[in-house]
């Protein structure tokens, strides 16, 4: 029953995300922050829960989370404009974190809602997915079942957000739709909670891959 409940919740969250994302990849918004907005965004983050997941500031500012993420310095965020090949490459790197690795997951339809799974196994790529999709399943067949439409993933960012005192940090990989809203976030740590040491090590490897690709807003 637990697996069915998780599946129903994820299906609701992901379908809501895709319902709001109906534009073709050629129509992707340019989600790179202006200099004026960059100052405003960074000031807001500094004053409101620095180190917390960016979805919180995104809702407060009423801007797409990808646009907000583009304001961060390279020490806090690296990211790319995605295509099906890059999206598959990055998810394969998350897959390599390990089937038994605990992670946190956040589904955030239109950046206005949040479905949070504080501790869950890594969703692993499945063979036989329909062309244009990634299929993932976690924890054997008893966890999350996810179906990602590749043409509707347009930005991917890794974020390493430190608290003001530097004692904790939020580390995650987030996949965004063409409107700049988050589709799914996979987290190694959220604020003061480290999900697992294996996830932190995996996050560092995926960060390195993303940082080595042409950056979204350069």
H/E series: HHHHEHEEEEEEEEEH
Oligomer: single chain
Judging from the principal axes of the Cα atoms, what is the shape? globular
Low-confidence stretches: 1-27
Largest sheet: 7 strands, antiparallel
Give the CA-CA distance, first to last residue.
47 Å
Q: What is the structural class? A: alpha+beta
The radius of gyration over CA amounts to 16 Å
Keywords: Signal
Protein name: ChuX/HutX family heme-like substrate-binding protein
Pfam families: ChuX_HutX (PF06228)
InterPro entries: Heme_Transport_Util_sf, HutX-like
Structure description:
This protein is α+β, with helices and mostly antiparallel strands and 218 residues long. The chain has a single domain (2-211), classed as Heme iron utilization protein-like fold (3-Layer(aba) Sandwich), CATH 3.40.1570.10. The chain is built from 6 helices and 10 strands, in the order H-H-H-H-E-H-E-E-E-E-E-E-E-E-E-H. The protein has helices at 2-19, 35-47, 54-61, 65-69, 84-95, 197-211, and strands spanning 77-81, 102-107, 115-121, 124-125, 133-137, 145-149, 155-162, 169-176, 182-190, 193-194. Strands 1, 2, 3, 7, 8, 9 and 10 form a 7-stranded antiparallel sheet that branches. A hairpin with a 7-residue loop joins strand 5 (133-137) and strand 6 (145-149). The chain is globular and about 45 Å long. Residues 1-27 have low confidence and may be disordered.
